[in-house]
Design goal:
By secondary structure, the protein is mostly helical. Helix content is 63%, strand content 6%.
């Protein structure tokens, strides 16, 4: 006999994730530090703002650097005797302060922009879960798979595209300034430095703008990828609902038990009623008036159809008068809850029924 072995890939039968993520799923992902975010946007904005700051504060930076350089060049000539440790310390702290003045504007602006760019993307988010080491990442097989994964390939294409675009932008701008290079030989050192500085800053601004445009498209892709990975199958949504809200079947049974207990409690109040007002086959309302406890008659029980029949049976068994009044029965059933007093607009009608019942009992 021949034996055949069938290998079944169970993933083929796995339910496809087509449903948007629930708020709980999104909250859990955020707690893990998983958010739609593009690092390229932060880098591009930071690069653009840095070069713009260099353009704005260029004169201030150049003036302070020149001042610091003149101080260094003139320091030895002002010293008649051997240089002492105290003099070197003064030079050191003077240099630190002056250099801090030079870089402080750029550092402060860059830090503010970096924080703002991240906040605009993900809001306030603090999570240490991404910092927790995961030993499964040390698996060389998984690492090898990540190298040749779809995400790695997409990142490679993005990097290659950015390098090509940046190279073209730099080349196209510098090409226009190649004709000015021979003129640098006739310029003094300050003019040459000014030309080189302007060229670097202008090139950097153009590169940063191009990178920012690319980063905006990258954020759109990251958002789409994040939403796709966050999707859930219908079965996952059902399981989540069971975990958060409880099993619907169990909840239904609990509600049924509660209704039965409430019904039993209500039926125990029927023998205490003064009268049961009915719409012969559909409604039954048990009413009691105790002047010492309430200002108006109370509805002790009410029911419709089968429950109404049960209320009338209990009333008969306990010699509680049953009075037919269709309009009143319908009004009481629709407007008064169990345990509530009869509203003022129904006082007269209920009083007439009670008066009739009391006359039967010679009250």
């Amino acid at each position: 006999m021949f034996e055949f072995e069938f290998v079944i890939n169970l993933q083929l039968f796995a339910e496809e994730r087509t449903e948007p993520a629930t708020p709980k799923r999104r909250r859990e992902a955020r707690e893990k530090g998983q958010v739609a975010k593009s690092r390229d946007i932060v880098s591009a904005i930071l690069l653009l703002v840095t070069f713009l700051a260099l353009r704005i504060f260029g004169g201030y930076i150049f003036e302070n650097l020149s001042k610091l350089l003149r101080f260094f060049l003139s320091f030895p000539s002002k010293t008649e005797n051997a240089v002492e440790i105290g003099d070197l310390m003064n030079v050191y702290w003077y240099s630190v302060v002056e250099f801090a003045k030079v870089i402080a504007p750029i550092l402060l602006i860059s830090a503010l922009v970096a924080v703002s760019a991240n906040y605009l993307q993900v809001g306030f988010l603090f999570s240490i879960k991404p910092l927790i080491p995961k030993f499964n990442k040390l698996n060389p097989i998984e690492g090898f798979k990540n190298i040749f994964s779809k995400n790695a390939f997409v990142e490679f294409l993005k990097s290659a595209f950015k390098i090509a675009v940046v190279a073209y932008v730099i080349y196209s701008y510098l090409k226009k300034n190649f004709i000015l290079i021979p003129e640098l030989l006739a310029m003094d050192m300050m003019a040459t430095a000014h030309f080189i500085g302007n060229t670097i800053v202008n090139t950097g601004i153009r590169v940063a703008v191009v990178l920012l445009v690319i980063a905006i498209f990258d954020y759109g892709y990251q958002f789409w990828e994040f939403e796709k990975n966050l999707r859930m199958s219908k079965q996952e949504i059902k399981e989540e609902y069971k975990m958060t809200e409880g099993n619907p079947q169990i909840k239904s049974k609990i509600r049924e038990k509660q209704r039965q207990m409430s019904l039993r409690r209500m039926m125990t109040e029927v023998p205490k009623a003064d009268v049961v007002i009915t719409n012969p086959t559909h409604f039954a309302i048990a009413v009691k008036y105790d002047a010492g406890k309430a200002d108006a008659p109370l509805v002790l029980a009410k029911g419709k159809d089968l429950i109404a029949q049960k209320i009338k049976e209990i009333a008969k068994d306990n010699n509680v008068p049953i009075v037919e009044n269709k309009p009143l029965a319908q009004a009481l059933y629709k407007t008064v809850e169990i345990g509530d007093m009869v509203p003022a607009e129904l006082y007269k009608a209920v009083a007439e029924v009670l008066a009739f019942v009391y006359s039967l009992k010679n009250k």
